[in-house]
Design goal:
Pfam families: FecCD. One of its GO terms (molecular function) is transmembrane transporter activity. This is Iron ABC transporter permease. The chain contains 13 helices and two strands, in the order H-H-H-H-H-E-E-H-H-H-H-H-H-H-H. It is mainly α. The chain has a single domain, classed as Orthogonal Bundle (ABC transporter involved in vitamin B12 uptake, BtuC), CATH 1.10.3470. A hairpin with a 2-residue loop joins strand 1 and strand 2. Helix 3 packs antiparallel against helix 10. The longest helix has about 35 residues. The mean pLDDT is about 85.
Length: about 350
Amino acid sequence: MTSGGDPVLRRRRGSARVAVLFTVLVAGLVVASVASAAVGQFDIPVSQVVGSVLSRAGLDVLAAPGDPFAEAALWDVRFPRVVLALLVGGVLGICGALMQGCFGNPLAEPGVVGVSSGAAVGACLSIVFGWTFLGSFTTPALAFCTGLLTTLAVYVLARSKGRAGVVTMILTGVAVNAVAGAAISFLVFAGDQAAREQIVFWQLGSLAASRWVHVATIAPLVAVCVVVALLLARRLDLLALGDRQARHLGVDVEVLRLVTIVVVAIAVSAAVSYSGIIGFVGLVVPHLIRMITGPGHRVLIPASLLGGALLLVSADLLARNAFDYADLPIGMLTALVGGPFFFWLLLRTRRREGGWA
């Protein structure tokens, strides 16, 4: 037997590849997060950023910023934004992996089931009609509720004879997304100039308004999403064998899909309610991770968490510093990366499968 065909050697190589991947992702996250906190219109030395964090932890190893303005900029503006970028990016990465595993399609992403467009409808309603019954939380709360309700509506409409087929659910999601898009267009038409500008900015995605209270709101939902996703990992691996084979192995396919979709709906609705629509993270990250580690979800899910967080915090760093005194919409940057990647993925799928039929 050749060394390349030795299963033990292959497992060792696979384990080493996974270890290197996680090391790179964690190191990249630390570097990108510190850089994002340090770099801006008001630069703060990296040593002082690290010193400020260690000082809050009770370790006076490095000097914290002596300027109260720098300290306030770090803890009131930049750190909340960095942490929210990590949470939103991580949850989008995980949900992309869940959707691709649930539908058995590498082209699937959370927006397929209407969660992002549904959340946009709720946000637009709040903006156009000026609703403030929950104070500053009105727009995020409505975005969360409508995103969740839209996703559940897609699942209910796609069910037939007690089952929700993959193709039917995707097509239902396309139809619901179209209806949501029409509703958004009508609200843009009905709103005044200020509302239109706010809607456009929200749809492009931004983390500019990040605060610690936002982090505290979505962090528990992200934590639940991570735990449930890891618990579903083995059954998603079995689902990759096909619905019939998974049922023979004891997997309740309908319950698995329902739980997966509910988790994705809750997590993504919570994320986009504060960040606006940020596309392609859930498409690009899981597929890249899968190309490196293989399809096993017990590795894919935590790696997608780290990869999504790394991608979004890096994109936010670029969005804040690409132009002086301007904050680019982060959804625009992820689309600039994700669009060409999606096109390449389509071409690659067509070549491998010999056509679209």
